[in-house]
Amino acid sequence: MKKDIKPTLLDFAILGLIYDQPLSGYGIRKVFEETAMGNYSNSPGTIYPAIKRLEKFELAKKILQPDTGKTRIQITQKGLLRLKEWLIKPIEKKEVEKKIDELLLRFAFMENLINKEQKIIFLRSFHDLLETYIQDLQTFYGKESNKMPLHGRLAFEHGIESNKTTLKWCKNTISALT
């Protein structure tokens, strides 16, 4: 029996990509290279070992394209189950504070995998945790801004405003889905 793994963020990004359609290793690399997915990696030294790991743990498998004789990577049922579990797992405060890109990646892959109610639960949780985080940032800023150097203060203000923009996006997205 194979030891189970905890997939990495890169693993989930690959699973999300191949859910839509099987891709070659090169095709996966090109998506990472040519889109914002490159934030996760576009290095062959990272992508190909991740694909091998997904295959080893039966989360993905190679399939032969009869028309071309080339192989593509396809998500397995086990991989699909792990991907869905990741998409609907409860959001933690630390993710809102440090991993907003990961939360947005999760949301991006939800479209055809998660029902509307689960998407709304995700977004409301994201909204509520973000609202609390912004209040915490503003409280800290109110107490400490006069001690900050100018550029530090301006950078901190950018962080607050960026989070407010994400909060507005949450509200608008909930409205769009309901």
List the helices and strands and how they pair.
Elements: H1 9-20, H2 25-34, H3 44-56, E1 60-64, E2 71-75, H4 77-88, H5 93-98, H6 100-109, H7 116-144, H8 150-177
Antiparallel strand pairs: 1-2
Helix content class? 55-70%
Query: Strand order of the main beta sheet, please?
Result: 1-2
SS-derived structural category: mainly alpha
Outline: elongated
The largest sheet is: 2 strands, antiparallel
Whole-number radius of gyration? 19 Å
Number of helices: 8
Strand tally is 2
Average pLDDT = 91
- The proportion of strand residues reads 5-15%
| Distance separating the two termini | 44 Å
Helix-strand pattern, N to C? HHHEEHHHHH
The low-confidence runs, each spanning 5 or more residues with pLDDT under 50, are none
Number of structurally distinct domains? 2
Organism: Lutimonas vermicola
Protein name: Helix-turn-helix transcriptional regulator
Domain Transcription regulator PadR N-terminal: 14-81
Walk me through what this model shows:
The protein has 178 residues and is mostly helical. It folds into two domains: 9-87, Orthogonal Bundle (Arc Repressor Mutant, subunit A), CATH 1.10.10; 90-177. It is built from eight helices and two strands; from the N terminus they run αααββααααα. It has helices spanning 9-20, 25-34, 44-56, 77-88, 93-98, 100-109, 116-144, 150-177, and strands at 60-64, 71-75. A hairpin with a 6-residue loop joins strand 1 (60-64) and strand 2 (71-75). Helix 1 packs across helix 3 (44-56) and helix 7 (116-144) runs antiparallel to helix 8 (150-177). The mean pLDDT is 91.
